[in-house]
Amino acid sequence: MLKTMTRSLSIPHFLYADELDITALSRLRTALNSKNNHKNQPNEPRLSYLPFIIKSLALALHRYPILNARIDTTSTSQPRLIMRSQINIGVAMDTPQGLIVPNIKSVPSLSIFEIAAEIARLSALARVGKLAPENLTGGTFTVSNIGSIGGTYVAPIIASGGEVGILGLGRARTVPGFDDDGKVVRKEVMHMGWSADHRVVDGATVARCAEEVRGWVERPEGMVVNLR
Prior knowledge:
By secondary structure, the protein is of the alpha+beta class. Helices cover 35% and strands 24% of the residues. Strands 1, 4, 7, 8, 9, 10 and 11 form a seven-stranded mixed beta sheet that branches. The mean pLDDT is 90.
């Protein structure tokens, strides 16, 4: 970890932060979990917010592929930007061995439940130190769900070699808000913090990608059309 974090200091980070309204997503998640409980399907994982956000991110990266690219600095002449066709989302995990980032392969081709199942599988392997090399290589973008442990706000750093971005998620919390009629209502929100390699990505691209993610998360019914 020392070498990885030291290398990250050479990356000029662009930071971007905003808040997600996850009220509608919370209702959908609750309904899907309740439906699975009624159907008595023990093999289906209980859904957290993370699979939905990973799916939303994959949809956004398809539209903004530069954030899914890799920067190659091994050349003695000048760095090269390599565009990648696959979208493999790394998930930062806290394990007895320290921070590990296994990745979910080909996220656009997976359903929400398949993403949740893969997170559960990789997490179980990580806890006992049995991740295979293929689980730890090939990632194209990373998500840190530090909010599952604690913390409202997060400013993540790019640590995975060659990646040009990372998304950090804060803790989901309930706050008062206003509906379209100006009435005070209960809302659920989550902070999202982005970091991008400013040598490759400008701030406007990060902002547009973040707004794309927001659109899918805050109107999750539209995500259903894009499920595989």
